[in-house]
Every structure is written in C-alpha cells, then in structure tokens.
Amino acid sequence: MISRIAEIRSEAAAAIAAAGSSEELEGLRVRYLGRKAELPGVLRKISELPPEERGKVGGAANRARKELEELLGARAESLDASELDSKLAGDRLDVTLPGAPPHPVGHAHLVARTQRTIEDAMVGMGYTVAEGPEIEHDYYNFTALNHPPGHPARQLQDTFYVQSHPEVLLRTHTSPMQVRAMETQPPPIFVVVPGKVYRRDSDATHSPMFHQMEALAIAEGITLADLKGTLLTLARALFGETREVRLRPHYFPFTEPSVEVDVSCFQCEGTGALPDGSRCNICKGQGWIEILGAGMVDPNVLGFVEQYGYDAERVQGFAYGLGIERVAMLRHGVPDLRRFFDNDLRMLEQFA
Ligand code: DAH
Q: What pLDDT score was predicted for residue 310?
C-alpha cells in the first residue's frame, strides 16, 4: 500500500509538472484528489486496515495528498500568470498603426453649389438673400405681378392648385417674392431669391420641380444699363471673364420693357464654330446662349406695394429670373435635367 501511494504521488507530480493549461490542471486535480480518486479513497478506508498499518499508511497518504495539493497550487499560479501574459500579448494594440479608413463625407448637390455660386456673385454686388414659400397665393404668384385673373399669360405657367382652396397653388416662379420682399422693407431694395418652383412640365430640359434665382433691384434712378451691367458681372462670374451679354426684346407681364438675355458662348468664344470648323454644339452655331428673362419692373407691380413706400414716380428698378439647373447644365455639360433628381451616386459624385 505504501509503495502504491508513492507511485500515485510520483505519477501525479509528473503529470502536474507537465500540465500545459489551467484547464488540464483542473482535470488532474479531479483525477488525483477528487471524490472518486484513488488516494482519497485510501484515506477513507484507513479504518478497514489492520491497526498496526493505519498510522503508517494514513501518514503517507496524507503527506502525498498535501504535497499534491501544494504542487497543484503552485502550478496553477504559474499557469495563470503565463496565460494572462499571452492573453495580454494577444490583445495588444499597436497604437502606431494608421486609423481605419475614414467614412466618405457627402458634399453639396450640384444644384445647391450652383445656387451658392450665383448667390456669391450677387452678394458681392450688395444683394441680400431671401427665401419665400413654395405654397403660394394666387395674389403673389400672378395678380400682384400684373397677371390679373383671366390674363392669358397665366396659362403659360400651368401649375398645381390646391383643390379645396383654388387661390392656393405651388408657385410657378420665384417672382412672387418680389412683392413679398417689397412688403417687408421700403426702397432701396437689392435682393436675390433662390428656391424651388413647380410647373406641369417634364422632358429633358423641364422638370415638374426645378430651381430658380430671382433678383430684384429697386431704388431711385435705376436704369436698363444697371441691369445690363449686373448681368454682365453675373455672366462673367458663371461662364468666364471674357463673356459678353446681349438683351433681346421679349414679353413678361411684370416687366416693361422685358428682355431675354443671352451670354456669348463659352465654348466657341461666341464664334459659333469650333477650331476644326464644325458647328459649336453648345450654342448650336449661334454664338449666344439664352440664360434668363429680365426687365424693368412694371409700374403696375409697384402699384401693389405703394403703401410700403414704392412710389413708381420716384423709384424704379429691374428684376431677373433664371433657372439654376439650366446654368448647372451649361457649366458642366449635363445633357438631361432629370439626372439632377434621380439621386444616382454615379452622377452626383462627379461633382464633389
Ligand atoms: N418669372 C419668369 C419665369 O419664371 C422669369 C422672369 C422673367 C423673372 C423676367 C423676372 C423677370 O424677374 O424680370 O419665367
């Protein structure tokens, strides 16, 4: 029995020394010191031995058990320490590595950027920027702009009406803000109004919703020459320093005289022809590109805001309205206006 105890002790001691993990060590503790293990069994059965052997066997078994417990404890401690070391080593962060690639940030839509470019040019000439409601009253959209009810020019701007309120509509242009702006401050006024407008239209150059920029300048002594100079500055800011503008007679109900404004073609420098002699595709060989409508504000319009200080005998001025998408299409060669609103990233990302 004594030699069996020594055998167990040395076998267990060797196994404990060789254990490679704390899990394995726990298995050895159960195997050699657990309830079903041989050595504790010897101790439990001491009383069954002949009295003269009990002391010796019991002493040897107790010593072996105590020794194994100590070996297990010591080995557990060193295994725990090395396991912690390797866990820490595995978890180590290399703070010198470059960071994760940053998520791309978005950018302003080309229409918004074009709007800001126009605003910048106008703010540079002393204008302020104002915005107005997209859901508008017939009064501001038409009547106060010298389109009385039944005026045929209303049909040129067929729009969306609110069925239960026939006097409420989606504005067809930013011009209603001319009147609203004049109601908020006496002359002189120099204001630009960017915003969404709505028409019953849809093709490659028309969309039911698009953006306009309105400009209004009212003060004493303003003439058509001021309009032309302002348009020249704007055209050069948008299309290049060598641009020229020309005014052609036109009709708008709220201006008199009214003009359509062309800018000299920035691709063919106004010649209508490309260096190889072929016809310029941007201006269609004309040398000029139509960019906006404008005119001197009709005294009838000022009549609607006379009580706000706009005496048509004393002040006068000009207005213009342009399509922001049209300017963006020309500047960037975008062939179809609807592409601005598809929200296809392949299109939008080209204008980062
Ligand atoms: N409101 C006009 C339109 O949408 C554009 C326009 C023409 C605006 C002449 C003006 C102007 O201010 O003077 O077709």
A: 98
Q: Which residue of 320, 324, 325, 327 sits with most ligand 1 atoms within 8 Å of its CB, as the best mutation to test the pocket?
A: 320
Distance, CA 61 to ligand 1 centroid (Å)? 109
Does residue 254 share a domain with residue 208? yes
Domain hosting residue 79, numbered range: 2-90
**pLDDT tens profile 18-31:** 888 888 888 888 88
- The reply to whether 25 and 135 lie within a common domain is no
Mind listing the pLDDT tens digit for each residue in 257-290? 999 999 999 999 999 999 999 999 999 999 999 9
Atom of ligand 1 nearest to the CA of 175: 1
CA of 258 to the centre of ligand 1 (A): 9
22-29 contacts: CB < 8 A, separation 24 or more?
22/76, 22/79, 22/80, 22/83, 25/72, 25/75, 25/76, 25/79, 28/72, 29/72
Q: 341 CA to middle of ligand 1, Å?
A: 23
Query: First and final CA of the chain: distance in angstroms?
Result: 88
CATH number at residue 151: 3.30.930.10
Integer Rg of the chain from CA: 45
Q: Give this prediction's pTM.
A: 0.72
- In the chain, the number of structural domains is 2
* Ligand 1 binding site (Cβ under 6 Å of any ligand atom): 173, 175, 214, 252, 255, 293-295, 319-321
